[in-house]
Amino acid sequence: MSPEINYQEAFTLAIKLSEQIDYQSLTHDFLYSLEKFSFVSHAAAYEIYGERRQRTGQASCASEQLIRRFPLDLTDEEPNEAFDLLEEINTVIGFKPSKPNAAGLFTQILASIRDVSGPDRVVLIQGEFDNDALELISSVIALYRNQVALHDNKERDLLTKLPNRQTFDARILQVCEHFRLRPLVDRVLDKSSWIAMADIDHFKQVNDTYGHQCGDEVLLVFSRLLEKYFRYNDFLFRFGGEEFVIILNLVAEADALATFERFRKAIADYQFETVGKITVSIGVAHIYASSVPTILLDRADKALYYGKTNGRNQLNLYENLYEEC
Q: Which of 139, 232, 246, 251 is the most exposed place for a label (fewest CB within 10 A)?
């Protein structure tokens, strides 16, 4: 089965991918374009964090593995397909087609996207491919890999590799749009989303006492713990310095506060190499469909500031401190 695409179509596809303004739109268009090929039946992309199969939040080590399927969404369904493929995903390097079937056609391709600023990624493509189709898919993936690297350099924090403030702006609008289409009845009981600002307490003292290299190590470990204690459908960001932002999705208020409190306690209990114990203050605000990012950030920041000025190492919810919404 030969690929039915001419050079003009190939150039058009390349131009379209190069026009995408961020990683989300790039990957969305990339997968959509793949599935337009007659020989492709299914295409998916995954982000891979950590080193082991366990789901985030369930192991005692921060190096557990987390598989997250693109596009990032607000569903609470686990990506079972990725877990079924996990062993194969972990071993794939470069471009790996399956063994040919009885007709001499390949039915699956796994392609790794590594050595980029963000997490390792794997693209899964299923269908029926001959050698010409493999060559075409390989070229398209090479183009996608180059574009991913460009977007990662722009959209991710260089130290922790977490998404940065620019990426946050797009994700918070996505969350607000979700709830605009699905209005909440009860803020406390309904599953909704929550924004938190987490700030490492007395971080300047860490840099002043131990040096910036040790300070960077604390930030790296802190970011790995974030990835451990939050789920594949939650969004994590580094805003700069010792400040991080978390969007916790689809949980009721009590569960949201319990999750943030568990993370706060985990940081307080963790023994950081060289610097020992540190703590974190967390300010949380409820995400409303009608809110704008600046208002949500301001509310979370006010709750954080309250904790910073009232003893640190604590969690505070904006709605409990300042108003009932």
A: 139
Separation in Å, CA 142 to CA 65, 127, 159, 290 = 26, 19, 25, 40
Check residue 167 and report its DSSP letter: H
Residue pLDDT, tens place only, 203-248: 999 999 999 999 999 999 999 999 888 887 789 999 989 999 999 9
Please check whether residues 133 and 278 belong to one and the same domain.
no
Orientation angle between helical segments 203-210 and 212-229, nearest 10 degrees = 140
Three-state secondary structure call for residue 92 = coil
Q: Which of 47, 64, 242, 253 is catalytic?
A: 242
Angle between helix 165-181 and 293-308 (nearest 10) = 110
Task: Tell whether 141 and 184 lie within a shared domain.
Answer: no
Catalytic annotation present for 4 = no
User: What would the 3-class secondary structure string for 32-86 be?
Assistant: HHHHHCCCEEEEEEEEEECCECCCCCCCCCCCECEEEEECCCCCCCCCHHHHHCH
Residue for token pair 């803020």: 187
249 close to 233: Cβ distance less than 8 angstroms = yes
What CATH number does the domain containing 43 carry?
3.30.450
Contacts of 187 (CB under 8 A, 6+ apart): 253, 286, 319, 325
Please tell me the distance from the alpha carbon of residue 65 to that of residue 54, in angstroms, as a whole number. Answer: 6
Per-residue pLDDT reduced to its tens digit, 249-292: 888 999 999 999 999 999 999 999 989 999 999 999 999 877 78
Domain around 229? 165-321
Question: Is residue 34 domain-resident?
Answer: yes
What global pTM score does this model have? 0.79
